[in-house]
Design goal:
Layout: E1 5-11, H1 14-25, H2 33-55, E2 68-73, E3 78-83, H3 90-98, H4 102-110, H5 116-121, E4 137-145, E5 154-159, E6 164-170, E7 176-183, H6 193-204, E8 211-216, E9 228-232, H7 249-260, E10 268-274, E11 280-286, E12 303-307, E13 310-316, E14 328-333, H8 342-347, H9 349-372, H10 374-388, H11 391-394, H12 399-405, E15 409-410, H13 422-427, E16 435-440, H14 444-448, H15 454-459, E17 464-466, H16 471-475, E18 480-481, E19 484-488, H17 502-514, H18 516-526, E20 532-535, E21 544-547, H19 555-563, E22 574-577, H20 582-588, H21 593-610, H22 618-633
Parallel strand pairs: 2-8, 12-14, 16-17, 16-19, 20-22
Antiparallel strand pairs: 1-6, 2-3, 3-7, 4-5, 4-7, 5-6, 8-9, 10-11, 11-14, 12-13, 15-17, 18-19, 21-22
Helix pairs in contact: 2-6, 9-10, 9-12, 21-22
């Protein structure tokens, strides 16, 4: 071994210490995953070299045959993994092996379940795969040199997985990284060719470069030791380049776990090859659960991009719209340049065509899942429904298709589950119904018990109940579906069209005319609090409600804007009263203007509370209510 210089001992970051303790003492039920993680890291290092060598061919240093080698020594109880990828400098080793991004560690710790097998599978997802080596090793040595640097600039990193690590400068002739695991007592099973071969076939068969194991052959005459030959133990061909008929479901699933760093199988996948004006292959996956950073819109996302089977970049986000950011997969193009950049991707017309086709393919895959596997789609919606609701605003061309994939709670259910699709809603609509009715609110209990639904219950008309914070914003982009327009039952002057009989309409007109005097008295009493007062056609049980003007913001949007510190446009509600309610009859007969005013304001405030709004002057409401209670008890 070459002489070590500039040797120093450094302490691990606190988060790494916590992680190492977990690896060493807790995650031991699925030990073999250490090899999957180290091979995955080595594959990434080779991909990075391929990419950087496009601009700087000299980084290949004359050795363009890229590979990973795994070997073992039964006597020394070691397993060695070596790649000829990009390698690390001294600074890289200290940074990458001594620290972890704090958010990654915190999220990793937060997502632990206590189930060792599941927790061990989380390792790769949070970028902490290297430390899985300490599940089976009590000492790890890393020898590395960054491609393009001098042989004298190699680095030796070493640690026993405790509080610190050593780092020294060494001579290293070959670029890349060699990791030597000194196995713990009792872990000798991994210093075995048959065991390593099986692990590689199980987890890494899809890796698109050779993974080699030593194959012992008979010694030549006069030689003491048999010569070592290497044999490739994985397929070493890109999965997406093979015909679909030759690929088993298990292979698709393992490849997904590799690219997504997920431990669960995907819900669905689509493998496609396009030939003609554009030539590319794609392999797209729908995950079965949401990643921890799904709602961080700036988090890394996108597909792995290859150009003519050469890896170009991770998280190429130009191929799918943002509302499909949870989709994982690869796209391999024959039409793009090998030196393509993120900036070029944003402007290239080829990308627009591919994005349009890939988006349609994902939506088709989700339609198929919803139709053929409704229970699985229910799980998908729980995980990704709110993100899908961003779609109609972002992707106008596919608005109808996305709308068909949306799911809502409705008055036909009693548990608030979002399971009703728009096609299903229309299929069971009342005869003559030409609208899709909905109501937004903060909670399911609030909207389900809203007075706005009273006339719909009476007539047996189903109403969609929307309680996600994004819903009112969503509905501002959805005007219709399958030729039927959406109607907010709390907005404007409700018109049930053909669902109201001529007799009902005539009776309503007569009542409105008869109560014109009461309308004027209420306008005077409520004054600036309301935009309008009118007789309600929505109520059967409640005395009054507040309706929203056609062009006004709803309560949900107002609360979102206020919470974000934005100025909310002034608007006043419409006060509607139920002329058949005993309280309204009592109000109509009230002779005292002062008492009439107090009762009017109490009804107004109660209607605001029923709508989920807060009172502008709670003290005045309490004062009026107490005054009324005292009068009643006198």
């Amino acid at each position: 071994m070459s002489v070590e210089t500039q040797k120093e001992t450094l302490g691990f970051q606190t988060e790494v210490k916590q992680l190492l303790h977990l690896m060493i003492h807790s995650l031991y039920s699925n030990k073999e995953i250490f090899l999957r993680e180290l091979i995955s890291n080595a594959s990434d290092a080779v991909d990075k070299l391929r990419f950087e060598a496009l601009a700087k061919p000299e980084l290949l240093e004359g050795g363009a045959e890229l590979k990973i080698r795994v070997s073992f020594d039964k006597d020394a109880k070691t397993v060695t993994l070596e790649d000829n990828g990009i390698g690390m400098s001294r600074e890289d080793a200290i940074t990458h092996l001594g620290t972890i991004a704090k958010s990654g560690t915190a999220d990793f710790m937060k997502h632990l379940t206590g189930d060792q097998k599941k927790d061990s599978h989380l390792i790769g997802q949070f970028g902490v795969g290297f430390y899985s080596a300490f599940i089976v090793a009590d000492k790890v040595d890393v020898f590395s040199r960054r491609a393009g640097s001098a042989a004298s600039e190699g680095v030796h990193w070493s640690s026993r997985g405790e509080g610190n690590f050593e780092v020294a400068t060494i001579d290293k002739a070959e670029r890349g990284t060699r990791i030597v695991l000194h196995l713990k007592s009792g872990e000798d099973e991994f210093a075995d060719g048959w065991r390593l071969r099986n692990i590689i076939k199980k987890y890494s068969d899809h890796i698109a470069l050779p993974i080699e194991l030593p194959k012992e052959v008979a010694a030549a005459e006069g030689e003491e030791k048999p010569a070592v030959e290497w044999e490739t133990v994985n397929r070493a061909s890109a999965l997406w380049t093979r015909p679909r008929t030759e690929i088993k479901d298990e292979e698709y699933q393992e490849f997904y776990k590799h690219i997504a760093h997920d431990f669960e199988n995907p819900l669905s996948w689509s493998h496609n090859k396009v030939e003609g004006k554009l030539e590319y292959s794609s392999l797209l996956y729908v995950p079965s659960r949401a990643p921890f950073d799904l709602y961080q819109r700036e988090a890394p996302k996108g597909l792995k991009l290859y150009v003519q089977r050469v890896f170009v970049m991770d998280q190429a986000e130009s191929f799918l719209p943002l509302y499909l950011r949870f989709i994982k997969g690869v796209v391999d193009s024959n039409d793009l340049s090998l030196n393509v950049s993120r900036e070029i991707l944003q402007k290239d017309p080829i990308i627009d065509s591919m994005k349009s086709a890939l988006t349609k393919r994902v939506l088709d895959m989700l339609e198929k899942l919803a139709k053929n596997e409704p229970e699985q789609y229910k799980g998908f919606w729980k995980n990704f429904g709110q993100v899908m609701k961003e779609g109609p605003a972002e992707d106008f061309a596919n608005k109808e298709k996305i709308a068909g994939l949306l799911r809502f709670a409705s008055t036909s259910g009693d548990d608030g589950e979002q399971v009703v699709g728009l096609a299903e809603y229309l299929a069971r609509a009342k005869e003559g119904q030409d609208k899709i009715y909905y109501l937004t609110g903060e909670t399911y209990a609030q909207v389900k018990n809203s007075p706005h639904l009273e006339v719909f219950r009476k007539k047996g008309i189903e109403v969609l109940l929307l309680t996600d914070r994004i819903d009112e914003w969503l509905m501002s982009y959805l005007s219709d579906f399958d030729g039927k327009s959406f109607v907010d039952v709390a907005r404007g002057d409700l018109d049930l069209g053909n669902l109201d009989s001529e007799e009902d309409k005539k009776a309503a007109e007569e009542v409105a005319k008869a109560k014109e005097g009461l309308v004027e008295r209420l306008k005077t009493a409520l004054g600036e609090s309301v935009a309008e007062v009118r007789v309600s056609h929505r109520l059967t049980d409640s005395p009054a409600i507040l309706a929203i003007g056609e062009q006004d913001l709803g309560l949900q949007m107002r609360q979102i804007l206020e919470a974000s510190g934005q100025k909310v446009p002034d608007s006043k509600p419409i006060f509607e009263f139920n002329p058949a309610h005993p309280l309204i009859e009592k109000l109509d007969n009230e002779q005292s203007d002062e008492r009439f005013g107090d009762l009017s304001h109490i009804l107004f405030d109660q209607a605001a509370l029923a709508a989920g709004d807060s009172l502008k002057d709670p003290a005045a409401y309490v004062r009026r209510l107490n005054k009324l209670l005292v009068e009643l008890s006198a």
